[in-house]
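Q: Convert this sequence to structure tokens.
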Amino acid sequence: MPIRSSVPFLGQPLSLAIGTLLLSHIAQAEQVEQAETMVVTASRSEQASTEVPLSIGVINAEQLALDQGAHIEDSINAVAGATLNQLSGSSSHNTGIRLPLNYDGYYLFLQDGIPLQSAAFFNHNGLRWASYNTSADQIEILKGAGTTLYGAGAVAATINVRSADPAFEPESRVKLLAGENDYSQLQFSHTDAIADDQAILIAASALQDGGWRDHTRRERQELLLKHLWQGEESEINTVLQLSQQEDESASGLTQAQYDTDITQTGLSDQVLATDPQRSSDFIRLSMEWLYSASDQLEISIIPYLRHSTNNYVATWRSYTPVGETAIDSIGLLNKASYQHDDGSETFFGLDLEQSQSDELSYQPFTVTTRGWGANTYVAGHKYRDQEVQYRNLSPYVQHNRFLSDNLQLQAGLRYDYNRYELENNLAEADNDSYGNRRLADRSDSFSSLNPKLAASYRLSDSSNLYGRIAQATRLPSAATLYNLSSGDSKSLAGGVDEERSTTWELGYKMTSEQLDLTLAAYRMEIRDAIVRAEDSKGDSFSTNAGETRHQGVELELLYRFAPHWSLQAALSESRHKFIDYINDGTDFSGKGMMRAPHTKGSLALNWVPGALHTQLQLEHFGTYWMDDANTQKAPSFTLLNLKARYNIEPDWQLFARIDNLLDRRYSHQTEIRYGKVRYYPGQGLNVKAGLEYRW
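A:
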């Protein structure tokens, strides 16, 4: 008789796999010792993954060395329930982790534990500023609401890209990767001791990609400097990160364009003649001071400075305005951890940040659009010219206590206060003649109190059961508050508040000589979602009137079934739907959300006979609704990839990967916009190879 799930959204194939694996291997967890995967994202201190009462997907250094990715999606998409979508072949991306693919601020992106951007100015492309192409040593994805360490934005996931640490033993590396469409990537790193108590790491990279679609060339350069000083009671880690990138722009394709030539740009001749591009500069300087005040008290203080620019042509709008934004931040992360005599632990802290955004948006040339919203847009017109100041203050506390030898309870509380101040350099106007509203100078503030509660029960030295419930909030971004259309007159008059969410999660983790397994079932409800509504005059405005529900099951495993052979699986099955949502007068309550596949996953077969490591990987992205009205579904797609790494002892390594081995034609994102289908095609068969030398 087939095993049937008692959970309505869990399908039979996944149920059967989970049941079989648990029954056949759970006994092995107590019989052998296996090296644990260590993570830091949950508490900003190193912990064994099985001991953390939440789901954390990990891409370790070995897998990253095998991936040799051109884009961070080449690694993250192998985590259960996670999708990172490279947009139009550029450095940009959107994200879908325990949510549909979306562009909103439900995610917190970190580099070495420090935010890559402010929640108030969330950019869905935020991970392009991470050091994935330069010195990534491990990527950790904390799924669901963040811990007490993380505030606004840590709703659906927290992604932490960890770079390599300085070492006291000298080592240098140089790596060259090359591929089709003029793709090349050069990486260099050197680490060494500069004194008995100091070490440095210097890493740099340069990437060029001609793009497999027309007008999708991209370039990226980065320099990463790290310094470590170790004293008897203190440690100081200093990091300087600088990057510069430039992408040519393309767009989605119509049905006719997709059917005839998927390599075309999707842009009109007039727009293409302006050579639309996106460029960005990024600078971050941070210093972490770790101080052991006593055997019981440890203090961590991290001041940081951050600067980013984002200059682009908005090719997704018919009149293609230009946007230029610069954001400067100064922040301070403070944490103290106290170990009590009874073995319990209390940590508490205070996070502070002040950021300023300078935004300019204007019309680069005169254009007359057709169809929906047709208008003539005159060259030189300014849509936005404004400054926004953002301040954040967030104290938090958490207590971890063993109620018995095997049962641990974690209880935490975080308070977030956020304040915006708008200074508009343009005259106040209800309508600027192009459907945009200009606001007078104003200020807005938001506050929230979010509890976190988790429990874990140790079944053995290498297996745990856990459960958690955690609340989180998403701030309305500065753009949501202040970049309004003329129909948005009620958005601020009625008030737009934070979105609030609750995550419930149950999970099981184990590790043995043959099997590492993580199984998680979750449910996340988002209340007061910021949606578009319509008043009696037909004008639309933003308001907190939505409620959505997201629930699913995730399975991750590594099964070493024979000498030199192993199987990796990262599978998820989920449902994402509106509980209460009215958009421009249409009630979508009860509908499934767009861009939300029910199933997605990755299967990888590894063969490691000594110096050679090969991986045959199957990626699956299930069918999903193309619009919120649920009128049409996009087809699923499954891709086959082959990766290999060969160690030529003692100093040389060869790499190669073939993506889309069967040359499948597919669209990695398909949606209905203004009544028409838009396709974002995926790349066909492509080959990359590389060589690394160490000394």
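The two ends are 59 Å apart (CA to CA).
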